[in-house]
Amino acid sequence: MARVSIMETDAGSPGRSSSPTPQEALAALAEAERVQASTTALSATPWPLWFTTVLTVYLAALPVVYGGVVAEESWLLPHEAWWVVLMVMIAAFMASFAYAARSWRQRTGVALRLDVLPKRATVPLVIGAPVLVVGSAWAFRFTGQAGWLVAASVVGAAVSVGFHLAFVRLHGRRTPARPA
Amino acid sequence: MTTRQSADPAAGGFDNLVHAPNRLRICALLDTAGEAEFGVVQEELGLSASVLSKHAGALIDAGYVEQRKAVRNTRQRVWLRLTPRGREAYHGHLAALRVITGQ
Questions:
Q1: Is the CB of A38 less than 8 angstroms away from the CB of B8?
Q2: The whole model's pTM is what?
Q3: Is A173 on the interface with B (CB under 8 A)?
Q4: Which residues of B touch A7 (CB under 8 A)?
Q5: Which of A75, A93, A111, B14 fits as disulfide partner to B34, beta carbons 3.0 to 4.6 Å?
């Protein structure tokens, strides 16, 4: 703590503009990186289990419901019924998300960020999820094989569980960024 | 809102205000978190409320940090976030530190 106090006084002195030594600069960079790592882990606090379940069910159901909407002929339900199910499902999910996000912010005390995980994980998801939902539904429409929808449902549910576990793992590394 | 960059050309975007250890840590936390509640910043960095208030006040005065007040459970909470100017100063300062270390 003594080192911190001395640096604090020096760096904060009005009119003084000396640059630090390479060692001091290295220590400052290391400290900033430590705080960043700890804060990233805090931002990776996983969703509560109830919302993870809602998200998994939503991602599993979406390909099937959208498949029913775009089916060439009525499949299991009339088209209008599939539309109603789709709209209700999206509205319910959005309401759940808004509530869960608000609770999450209050619990963690930090802003909700969607870029906590590395881009190599999130970019394929952002591109792949719509392709999965739309692609499987149209594949179903052209082939009549419901297996496309089932496969997309399984992939959607697996992705949801996988991301939840990734957040649990990242959050588990957390240690408060207090001074060493 | 004065410019606090060092006159030393070798230091580039070196910022004396940001360089103070606790302020550098506050900036690092806010840059990563986006926005954080005062109590969380205090707990994460192990600072007393008065020390955090002092440093946050200095950053607010410089236009580097802005605060937002929100009520939760009938208690008012203060949320802190870096302004675009503060983010620029913080990243410029990190870049200057890297120059100093030869990275």
A1: no
A2: 0.79
A3: no
A4: 20-21
A5: A111
ipTM score for this prediction: 0.86
CA distance A59 to chain B (A): 27
Distance CA A69, CA B79 (A): 44
- CA atoms within 13 A of residue A160's CA, in its CB half-sphere: 22
User: Across residues A74-88, what is the average pLDDT?
Assistant: 93
Residues of A in contact with B52 (CB under 8 A): none
A145: phi then psi, degrees, rounded to nearest 5:
-90, 115
Instruction: Give the chain A residue whose CA is nearest to the CA of B6.
Output: A17
Rounded distance, CA A51 to CA A104, Å?
11
| Domains of chain B in sequence order | 13-97 (1.10.10.10)
Euclidean distance between CA atoms B78 and A105, whole angstroms: 13
Tell me the DSSP string of A78-132: -HHHHHHHHHHHHHHHHHHHHHHHHHHHHHH-B---S--S-HHHHHHHHHHHHHH
Q: Which of A7-21, A115-129, A132-146, A163-177 ranks highest by mean pLDDT?
A: A132-146
